[in-house]
């Protein structure tokens, strides 16, 4: 029997979130939105009354109401009772009140068929979205202020559109209380609000729908940083008669290049026609992230869903019970073009549902050819089969998407990364992914009377041939696995799989000896025969180049196929797998001087080369730790070179870094900077590499300053602020910079000009290093550092005295970039002394020399932080 106790809680009021229709005595009938006052509670029940009609009392289920904290608001000193109000943010209360008021008017607009209907509807939807963000309680105080101003503007526009009273607000968008605000202030704010709304209406802002589309276009085309965006996709439903379990593989596809540009998002669908994870129903969401300007410029992009049936070879076979189970068989493809959505030409949101028609293959058709057929078809005879999805463009990186759309992008939302780096790689974004595409093969029948049903099993093995655990992924939304099994095509001697998987290996793993192993097995449709089948052949490829330690090239690899005489059973060797001594690709074979048609047998242990069989894969490395470039690798492993007593090799790598492609440098920016600073402060090598390291630093700073890589400036800023950890580096940097300046007429002018262009970041590094030193040594050496800085700044001023044409470019660069370093120098240097030195710096420029640059420098100085200090 239910025991009733007094309801002891601050939240004694509740809001009905579901209808509770019951006609029995003692029960309280509820409708959504009813406010109830709660007296008592039992195990699963409350007892109370309706706030609007106190005569209606009774019990009702706890789950049917949402508790709200309620307060009493008095409207004046004479108001003894006050009125009941929820203890929510005033902004939330205002939005709720406005939505209720607008909703009644919106229904009347619908009845009267007024043209304002859609504008009001869009405004209401936007207010609901903003309210949802605020209720998530994930906004910072600054974000809350920004959103409050936007909401205030939207409410004022809506009220003006509907002819409602104008709400008087302050500068932050908060409603002014007439009881505590003077009449004059109210009048002035009223006038300002009227003028603001009038001007916004004249600009056409009242057309909310057009405004949202234009805003999306502007965001897509003119966003400075980060120049990234995401595509949010929610799978609503999949209508198709399969009869067996299936995997739905959702990804982005470039139709012009004929390749996928994102990882798969995997949803497992049950044979009953519902998701296997039924608890996750209505929550199959994925964010395709890392997309940028180049992706918006693609000519044709499709959202493609591949459907893979997981079951028997032929579901129409009457002897279904005797068939081999769990074979992965191609079942069909669904695709829809999203190019207009990416480019901002078509508006979508999370509430709009889109149907994607589904196409089954004709016979034993390869998925690759079916995808090309579907994306090029004008119409698809889908027979009512297909998927329902919702899409939304989310600006910024994944972190921003989570902050701005907390109700959509939760920690449980799957994240599908682009198969490639984003246009900006932030410090801490550590990736070590190798994308492997199983492309195609050719296999002889052997002893079979018909072509084989070939299944490829992919494993990642160490040098002993032992598989690594949980390193393979064939899509987000799915757990990492030890192996991957490919599709099976029935009686096909030249299968084309074109399946992409991701190999994600921990950066702490020993890469030497790691390799991919591919086992080829005939899958019989008969379960009894399939049990006795063993892999008939294998291929492999090493992840690292044994000669120089670089990783696999991003290209196709024609692998050699080896037969196994031991019926697929390998003998374990503690030292090394027997096949690792063999060449793994056609290129390796030719390097060893063996022709592919040579009749000389090639074998090791039980493995013998099969000349007639072939297998092709493609690899793409997306790693901040592994590189194709020998010189970058040499710098990242500089300590090994020094241990091998080979100083000339390190010197050569430092020299060649200047010629490495910028794309590779920004990819490994953090690790390269760490390596350069470690070499700089290494005591055992003294000053041997100082000059070269300094030139490399200047080269990298110059690269980031280049317009092509300007989006990486925040990355460099973040590195200095959060990652840089070399407290003694300032000593070397100040010395080296001064040496360059003192020898202005002697040093290579190209390097001097680059150093002057890099003044801002060189001083950032110096100041950050000195700040770290202060924390470590509690201010030790402060006077000596200030003297060093004074001499350095005086030396730069002295360089301005030169009158030869040889130093003209360097002097011009110094005038242009010196003021950008003031903000950082001011943190560690006396402001009065800095002001004197800057005056000296400008006065030292000879008359009638660099006049334009000098005036610009004076203008920059006036607008610098130095003029903000008293």
Automatic annotation (TrEMBL):
Subcellular location: Cytoplasm
Single GO BP term: small GTPase-mediated signal transduction
Pfam families: DOCK-C2, DOCK_N, SH3_2, TPR_DOCK
Keywords of this entry: Cytoplasm, SH3 domain
UniProt domain SH3: residue ranges: 9-70
Major subcellular site: cytoplasm
Residue ranges annotated for the C2 DOCK-type domain, each copy included: 431-622
GO molecular function, one term: small GTPase binding
Gene Ontology CC: cytoplasm; plasma membrane
Residue intervals passing through the bilayer: none
The family this protein is said to belong to: Belongs to the DOCK family.
Name of the protein this chain belongs to: Dedicator of cytokinesis protein 1
Species of origin: Mytilus galloprovincialis
């Amino acid at each position: 029997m239910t025991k009733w106790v007094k309801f002891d809680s601050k939240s004694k009021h509740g809001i009905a979130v579901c209808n509770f229709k019951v006609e029995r005595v003692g029960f309280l009938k509820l409708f959504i939105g009813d406010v109830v006052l709660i007296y008592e509670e039992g195990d699963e029940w409350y007892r109370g009354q309706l706030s609007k009609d106190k005569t209606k009392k009774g019990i009702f289920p706890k789950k049917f109401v949402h508790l709200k904290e309620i307060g009493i608001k008095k409207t004046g000193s004479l108001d003894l009772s006050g009125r009941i109000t929820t203890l929510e943010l005033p902004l939330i209360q205002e939005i709720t009140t406005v939505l209720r008021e607008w909703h009644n008017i919106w229904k009347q607009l619908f009845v009267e068929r007024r043209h304002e209907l859609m504008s009001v509807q869009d405004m209401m939807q936007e207010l609901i979205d903003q309210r949802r963000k605020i209720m998530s309680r994930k906004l910072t105080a600054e974000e809350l202020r920004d959103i409050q101003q936007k909401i205030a503007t939207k409410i004022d526009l809506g009220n003006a559109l509907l002819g409602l009273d104008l709400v008087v607000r302050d500068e932050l968008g908060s409603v002014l209380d007439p009881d505590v605000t003077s009449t004059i202030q109210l009048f002035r704010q009223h006038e300002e609000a009227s003028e603001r709304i009038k001007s916004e209406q004249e600009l056409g802002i009242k057309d909310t729908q057009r405004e949202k589309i234009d805003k999306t276009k502007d965001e897509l085309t003119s966003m400075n940083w980060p120049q990234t965006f995401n595509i949010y996709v929610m799978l609503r439903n999949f209508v198709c008669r399969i009869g067996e379990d299936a995997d739905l593989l959702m990804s982005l596809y470039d139709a012009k290049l004929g390749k996928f540009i994102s990882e798969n998002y995997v949803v497992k669908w049950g044979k009953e026609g519902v998701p296997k994870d039924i608890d996750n129903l209505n929550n199959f969401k994925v964010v395709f992230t890392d997309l940028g300007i180049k992706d918006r410029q693609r000519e044709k992009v499709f959202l493609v869903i591949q459907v893979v049936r997981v079951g028997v070879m032929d579901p129409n076979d009457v002897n279904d019970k005797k068939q081999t189970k769990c074979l992965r068989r191609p079942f069909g493809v669904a695709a829809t073009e999203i190019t207009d959505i990416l480019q901002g030409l078509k508006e979508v949101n999370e509430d709009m549902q889109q149907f994607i028609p589904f196409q089954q293959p004709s016979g034993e058709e390869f998925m690759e050819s079916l995808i090309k057929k579907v994306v090029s078809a004008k119409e698809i005879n889908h027979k009512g089969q297909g998927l329902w999805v919702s899409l939304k463009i989310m600006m910024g990186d994944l972190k921003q998407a989570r902050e701005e759309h907390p109700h959509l992008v939760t920690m449980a939302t799957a994240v599908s990364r682009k198969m490639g780096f984003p246009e900006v790689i932030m410090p801490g974004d550590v990736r070590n992914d190798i994308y492997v595409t199983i492309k195609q093969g050719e296999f002889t029948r052997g002893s079979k009377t018909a072509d084989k049903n070939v299944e490829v099993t992919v494993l990642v093995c160490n040098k002993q041939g032992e598989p690594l655990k949980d390193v393979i992924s064939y899509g987000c939304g799915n757990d990492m696995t030890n192996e991957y099994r490919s599709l099976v095509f029935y009686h096909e001697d030249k299968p084309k799989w074109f399946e992409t998987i991701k190999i994600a290996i921990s950066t702490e793993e020993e890469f030497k000896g790691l390799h991919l192993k591919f086992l080829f097995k005939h899958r019989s449709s008969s379960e009894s025969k399939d049990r006795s089948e063993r892999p008939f052949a294998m291929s492999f490829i090493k992840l690292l180049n044994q000669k120089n330690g670089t990783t696999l090239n991003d290209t196709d690899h024609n692998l050699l196929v080896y037969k196994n005489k031991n019926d697929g059973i390998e003998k374990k060797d503690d030292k090394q797998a027997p096949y690792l001594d063999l060449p793994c690709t056609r290129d390796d074979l030719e390097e060893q001087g063996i022709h592919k048609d040579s009749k000389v047998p090639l074998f090791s242990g039980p493995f013998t080369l099969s000349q007639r069989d072939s297998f092709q894969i493609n690899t793409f490395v997306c790693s901040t730790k592994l590189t194709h470039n020998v010189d970058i690798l040499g710098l990242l492993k500089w300590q090994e070179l020094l241990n091998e007593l080979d100083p000339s090799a390190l010197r050569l790598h430092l020299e060649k870094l200047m010629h490495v492609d910028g794309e590779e440098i920004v990819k490994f920016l953090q690790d390269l900077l760490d390596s350069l600073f470690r070499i700089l402060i290494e005591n055992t090598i003294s000053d041997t590499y100082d000059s070269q390291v300094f030139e490399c630093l200047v080269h990298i700073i110059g690269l980031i300053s280049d317009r092509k890589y300007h989006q990486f400036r925040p990355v460099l800023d973040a590195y200095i602020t959060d990652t840089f950890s070399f407290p003694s580096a300032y000593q070397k940097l100040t010395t080296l910079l001064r040496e360059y300046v003192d020898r202005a007429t002697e040093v290579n002018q190209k390097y001097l000009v680059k150093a002057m262009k890099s003044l801002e970041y060189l001083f950032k590094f110096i100041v950050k290093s000195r700040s770290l030193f202060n924390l470590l040594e509690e201010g030790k050496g402060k006077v000596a550092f200030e003297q060093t800085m004074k001499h350095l700044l005086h030396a730069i001023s002295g360089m301005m005295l030169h009158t030869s044409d040889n130093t003209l470019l360097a002097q011009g660069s110094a005038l242009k970039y010196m003021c950008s370093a003031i903000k950082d120098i001011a943190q560690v240097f006396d402001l009065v002394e800095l002001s004197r030195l800057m005056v000296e710096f400008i006065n030292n420029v000879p008359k009638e020399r660099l006049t334009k640059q000098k005036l610009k420098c004076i203008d920059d100085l006036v607008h610098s932080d130095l003029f903000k200090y008293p």
